[in-house]
Amino acid sequence: MTRSAPTSGLSLAQLERLMQSRRGEMAKLTRKRDKLQKQLDAIDERIASVSGGGSIGGRPGSRARNKSSLQEVILQVLSKSNGPTSVGDILDKVSATGYRSTSANFRGIVNQTLIKDKRFASAGRGMYQLKK
Asked: For residues 68 and 58, what is the distance between their CA atoms, to the nearest angstrom?
C-alpha cells in the first residue's frame, strides 16, 4: 500500500478536496469489488451445480446435505455384508452410495458413528457388524 503525503500544513479547502477525492476513489473501488463478488458468486453456483451441490472449497456454512443419515447408510451397508466388515471397507461402501461429507477426517466420523450407535457391534479390532 502506498503512503500518502503528510496532510499537515494544508488549508481547510485543500483537506476537503482531498477527502472528496478519497471518497470518490473508495466508491469506485467498492463498486469494482461488488462487481467481482457477483462474478465469484456466479462461478460458485456453477461449481455447485456441476459438483452436485456439494461444498465449494470447504467454505464455512457449506455443509453437504444427504437424503439419509450416516447411521442409516452404514446400517444399509452392514445389512448387505456377509459378516464383520472393516472400518475402511465400510467407509468405501458409504462413499460409493453417494454419501457426501465435507469432513477432513470422514473416517473418524464413521468410526465414531460405529462406536456410538447401539445397532452396531464390534467384532474385533476395527471390525464391525450388525448387533445380533
From this structure: 21
